[in-house]
Design brief:
The protein has helices at about 10-30, 50-60, 65, 80-90, 100-105, 125-130, 135-140, 160-165, 190-205, 215-220. By secondary structure, the chain is an all-alpha fold. The chain has a domain at about 70-80 and about 115-220. Helix 4 packs across helix 5 (about 100-105).
Length: about 220
Amino acid sequence: MIFPKWTNSLPLILLVGAGLAGGGVAAGVTMYLTPKYTRAGYQPVQPVPFSHNIHAGQLGLDCRYCHNGVEKSWFSNLPGASTCMNCHNQVLKDDPRLQIVRDSAANNTPIPWVQVHIVPDYVYFNHSVHVTRGISCVECHGRIDQMDEVRHAKSLSMSFCLDCHRNPAAHIRPPDKVTSLGWQWSTNAVEAEHLQEVNGKKFVHDWKVESLQSCSACHR
């Protein structure tokens, strides 16, 4: 006998192993390399036709009126229907498009919004840390104030995050301008770039901004 008996089952072992490995790879790709996570451009239909263009753009509502936990929480909360009804108990109060909102407020049930922005479970991101240190909503979410239906404007990939962490001075701004999505240092592009560089470096220094790039900063 040249080979031991267990080698007779070796082809089956290899086949099962290959199947399990292939299944694992397929599951990983399905979970993390499909639009669920890398979905720039993703724009789902929401249960209520809420227009950020009208509310944040034309009316100039501050992002924090609805997302009022963003400065103190890791999570940018969605507003309850009662927040919507602060205005809509008078404005468009009988509009059929807002029936879901009225029912939600009356029955104390959540509106089934479809989440647009999401990062994998193995990524830790704290909104408050960024927002209170001068990183504007526009850096990750794009010009939300110009969107009717919110879309996934930026990739939110690891390289996307690292580009900012490696040079935070190029993205930082005064804290009172964080939710002014169209704000610029100057209408002159050259001057704006110069002011961003000078003031950005000063802010990073004065506010002790930690541009962490270690794995443990985001993967906990």
